[in-house]
Amino acid sequence: MFKKILIANRGEIACRVAATARRLGVKTVAVYSEADARARHVQACDEGVLIGGPAPRDSYLQWQRIIEAAKATGAEAVHPGYGFLSENEDFAQACAAAGLVFIGPPASAILAMGLKAESKRLMEKAGVPLVPGYHGADQDPALLKKEADRIGYPVLIKASAGGGGKGMRAVYAAEEFEAALASCKREAINSFGDDAVLIERYVQKPRHIEIQVFGDTQGDCVYLFERDCSVQRRHQKVLEEAPAPGMTEARRREMGEAAVAAAKAVGYVGAGTVEFIAEQDGRFYFMEMNTRLQVEHPVTEAITGQDLVEWQLRVAAGEPLPLKQHELRMHGHAIEARICAENPEAGFLPATGRLGVARWPAHVKFQRGDVRIDSGVDEGDEISPFYDSMVAKLIVWGETREQALARLDASLRDTHIVGLQTNVAFLRRCAATASFAGADLDTALIEREKAALFGQPGLPLRVAAAAVVAHTLAEEAATVGSDPWSRRDGWRLFGASARRFDLAEGEAHHEVLLSRHHQGGMALTVAGEAMAFAVRSTGTEQHELLLGEGLGQQRVTVRTYKQGEQVAVFADAGSALMTEVDVIAHAGEGQGEGGRLTAPMPGKLVAFLAQAGDTVTKGQPLAVMEAMKMEHTITAPRDGVVAELLFAVGDQVGDGAELLKLKAAE
Predict the structure, then answer these.
(1) Are 261 and 127 in contact, with CB atoms under 8 Å apart?
(2) 107-114 vs 116-126: helix axis angle to the nearest 10?
(3) Contacts of 98 (CB under 8 A, 6+ apart)
(4) CB of 409 within 8 A of CB of 428?
(5) Of 156, 161, 113, residue with least CA distance to 132
(6) What are phi and psi for residue 258, nearest 5 degrees?
(7) Which residues are catalytic?
(8) N or C: which end of the chain has fewer CB within 10 A?
(9) What is the pLDDT of residues 376-391, one digit of tens each?
(10) What's 535's DSSP letter?
């Protein structure tokens, strides 16, 4: 076993590798950018080396500096994690040339599987089923369009050197092809430095099923069963589970043996994932092979009882695979939810900001357990625009899928993040849909269930308002003196009192009235509805609310977290973000000026799709921005005329920056 390794990555996966290395007694070296100087992964390792500026191209993609850091610190091997350089054959080759062990497959295997078109040809020779498509080297747009017409729409354009959903577009009609191809190539060149694409028939209602494979230097290769990763948005995974619901033993063996054949065809060593598109009738087609550890590897660990990072280290050190195929077993069911900083209601637009509150259910970290949370950030950390938007992975295990689903719902309910938008509430709704709960899975599940997933109300106003009032009363109670004259709760020696709260939720404003009776009871009036109100608070964050009387009384336990004027409320039924408005402090503030179109997040301006003087209609694409390694199209909020472009293509713009001015059409 190695004595010291360098982890050429950041965030959650760097922490994950460090945890197993520490358990095995292996020293670790972190590399970090200027933006990550105080990041958790740096603290998790024994040493740290600064390698450059915040942007990945200035730090985590600078493999020469990483190799220098490994040699300078005496590391024997380099673990690439996932993303960044994990599938870069030049980096793997450079490690070998520098006398360092690359904890991954040989550079030749990365090269063979990294180019999707070449890998398709290899798989065809190996007898692995393929989706009909074009995988040729000729990238003339006219030829690509002709091939798409031949294959028949819908087709999928995919970056040949891509992964992670980047450089991928579904095209449903011939007239959409050219624009989709241009966007796909643009994203591919920015993400991978290569704009070559392949085209495939877009299988209708497909399932995304992948097989975890492992090879060693002795030539042995096994599969550690399958994962179903069908629930996706923008071709990126949202929920992953193992085993795949409805999978028969015969089909599992067939897919596993095909995956092993694919790995052996390129002399594979280490952890890899062979991804298949599966039709509802069980037919499956090779899609690609990811020559690295996958984000969703914990669900495989949960059902097999194996530590895949430990397997990686042992195999890279020259040891044989820890288990043979016939020794591998599955037990129970596991589901992983990717918690991301994003706004599902705005097309999953990435969010940035500070994790003012990050509270989790009872869990273990980076090891197997009923509830596991793998994260590379702590409360108080910043989610920056430079890196991936994932905050954490929540992994649950149960004896059955039903038990795992129940644990997933409870764990998401108890995940409280404040300070930036996340997809936690969306994940909870997604897991509760009839399709997911009933295992009716395919990659269009989110679109099919959009009525249940988007535009859903959060907590009822009466509960959210009562929670804000309870939080305020608890805060005031914690600061009062011992005499009644210092009380701030409206106490009167004789008679009743009333107190007004001005609350806002989004654009809606509400007046809430708290009344105190001379007998000591309280009542709330919310949206014209009066109800009895009582509260028992534990500190300022946990409150037991009693709303109403008699048989209609509602008992609700809530958690509240206040930052500035905003109060985040969490309950079993959902969450709400309320603003307790100080009317005097905001006196004189007017509405925002019209005629502006602003950046919804910090990023790079990739293209303007309209020029000054153009007449545009509501919903028309006007600009393309790149943030967190993905392209995002910004559309016109209304009809009008473009008055002025305020930035140049290629500029970095901040969150809320005005991109262009719109004026009313004459």
Answers:
(1) yes
(2) 100
(3) 67, 70, 71
(4) yes
(5) 156
(6) -65, -40
(7) 292
(8) C
(9) 999 999 998 899 899 9
(10) E
